[in-house]
Amino acid sequence: MISIRKKENRQFLKYVSVVALLFFWVQIGYSQEKKERPNVILILVDDQGYGDIAALGNPYIKTPHIDDLHATSARFTDYHVNPTCAPTRAALLTGHHANRAGVWHTINGRSLLLERETTMAQIFKENGYVTSMFGKWHLGDNYPFRPQDKGFDEVLSHGGGGMEQTMDYWDNDYFDDMYVHNGELKKYEGYCTDVWFNEAIKYIEAHKNKPFFCYLPTNVAHSPYFVADGFSAPYQDNENIPLPAFYGMIANIDKNIGKLMEYLKASDILDNTIIIFTTDNGTAQGARVEGHRLDGFVSKGYNAGMRGIKASKYEGGHRVPLFLHWKNGGITVGKDIDELTAHYDVLPTLVELCGLKTNADIEFDGQSLVPLLNGDNSQFKDRIVITNSQRTEVPEPWRRTSLMQGKWRLIDGVELYDLKKDPEQRTNIAHQYPEKIKEYKRAYDAWWKDLAPGYKDLPRIYVGHEAENPAKLYCHDWHTTGDSPWHQRHIRTAYIDNGYWALHVHETGSYEVKLRRWPEETRLSLNAKAPIRPAIAGTSVSESKPSVALNIEKARLKVQDFDKKVDVDPSAEYIKFTVRLTQGEAKLQTWFTLDTGETLGAYFVSVEKL
Hints:
Helices cover 23% and strands 23% of the residues.
């Protein structure tokens, strides 16, 4: 019996060894297959317009590394985004119209990506990629909207839609700042753009044996225009350049793109990496316009012959560069593609290029650009693309809208332009083409009807959830009829406004709610003045303005069935309420009553489940 058992054991061990070896080789094959899938780096520059690149005709700016990428990429020359940043990011990352994704503003609770939306990072992650993001998010700073909630394994970001905005760390100034790393505040040395690229390179180096998706959305060249004088100096004393610091910020981006490309080459990663370079809206400071501050004709600077700048409904507000390079995919020679394309095309394009699987219930508004890369434009001939800038609580039909087909542009439903004959959109020819106007309005009405049911859906910040407790609320996200206090200067100068936060109470229970005038990190009392920020060494940036003290006498909190007003100790940092909240939807609003009788909302509120 013993010898028989030994023989059986030997046979069993041999069987296990064979199975293990087969499993090993299967795993090796699977790993090799995964490694051969292309990596993706998506660079999204803030506020850089089509004309803010030397290779695209700008006679003043120097962008040698972006020019090199342009020379070896497929260039989409009629590519469009939304005219402002958060909507563009929503569309780019979801493959949906920004309006469908719930993002048609940059503040007022309408820069928060609807919870139901699936992002590019989630799709890559579900397909075995490691995912990372370095820079500006601007689609929500609370659960469930943060980048780490939407598919990113590694996140390094500032708060809000730009540094110095309300939810950014107080007095961040682009140099040696506090950023949020995977949910925790951490101080980093160096200029912001240098930090984003340096940390991206470190992360790629640590994960280069796996397919990776790296999202690099820079906060520059968005205001405030802080950059070392060494970058802006070449553009000083040139009357044709509206703002030297703006070009200096782009020069710093260009330097970092060069550094990234050199690293990819040296590490033998570049050939199988898809590099995408694009921007989020038209130029902010590369051109000045006459007349209307957004929609006029260029009077100074360079804008590639387009009318309007950032936030404009005209071409200069939403036509931006899109370059795509991938050596192993055969995209290494400069090639212009002049068909009408848009930001929501990028995700379906990457799905096809990378062979990604998506959930059956995901239907993109965009379409893959792969046929265009292969020289087939048949699916794009009669295409209609619509972009708009709503910047309001509830969307309105035709509000600051451009409907595009080929080189035709219908603006707000009443102005028609033919860019072949009139690239600067100077002559409205709507009266000459009444039938075309009717055709385009029918297309727009169908588009609006499709999206309108989703306009009632509010993105709701969770409170009482283990992913973020306490939840820190910022006045940037107030739902209000005006412009909420979205910048730290509004806090300094005691901007008078109020609104409510749309919340989802995750669990019924007891909650502690703290109301502040100043952000927690300042440790300032309710009636204090904030210190003046010192000037930034090595730059032309001046000191901040003095702040205004508020004499707050009473505070009020209203949320669900709770509504209470209390007297205030003005020397305290915050006013604290303890409330019982019931699981489900809620609106939370606060009031500070001043000694003058005026009221305003608490700029900063924290909600913690006890």
